[in-house]
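Researcher: Good morning. I'm working through a list of sequences from a screen, and I'd like to move beyond sequence-only analysis. For each chain I'm collecting a predicted structure so we can compare shapes side by side. This is the next one on the list. No need for commentary yet; just the structure.
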Amino acid sequence: MLNFVLCDDNPSFLNNLEVMLSKLFIKHNLDAKIGLKTDSTSKLIKYVENNSVNVLFLDITLNDKNVGLNIAENIRKINKNLNLIFTTAHFEFVMEAYKVNAFDYLVKPISQDILEETLLRLIDYMDNSNNRFIKINGTTFINQNDIEYIKKDGMRLIYNTKDAEYATYNSFAKIMNILPTGFVRCHKSFIANISNISHIETSTNTILFNNGSKCYIGPSYKNHFMEVINLGNPQKYLDNINHT
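Model: Good morning. Structure tokens for this chain:
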């Protein structure tokens, strides 16, 4: 699920933006939510620090000052992959906005049609980018960094993420070629994201992840999987392996 955050010092604009986005989510059957709507920069920073955020609508002139750019610079240090869309009534700041790699810059008042055009371009960008998002069906995108493991369950694949599970009808054979290199087959029924492994219990062939979930290492996959861990994974994971 895509997580949208809205930050503006105008309550009326915030409410209207929330309503317009919600209608577009429904219209385009987009698996998305508005995780935070706020006029507080401190709440915004804290939320971005503690949650996976995909899209941020940010007023560039908060409290009639050019604060949004400074906030954007700080947020980029926390989440460099977040898609940033500036909103403002002041067109003169447009060039400065792109210095922080903004996806778009919307001048108020923002119409439903303009917002829809931006949203569709954003979805198209995520669909065609080969970096951060995995498309599991027509309207659902998952940040690859949020995936702990993928489980084969009959004709379905279950994507276990930090916050939820997503099911789709697919097969390992079809997705292996599109998955990033950090996703490694560890079992006939599991593909693990080695970036999110917190602990490996080799005595029970159990992989534990940062969110507390777990999957397993199959006997025929163990040698290859442990070779990948030992040769390609950061030392911090090796230090957590239990060899008892």
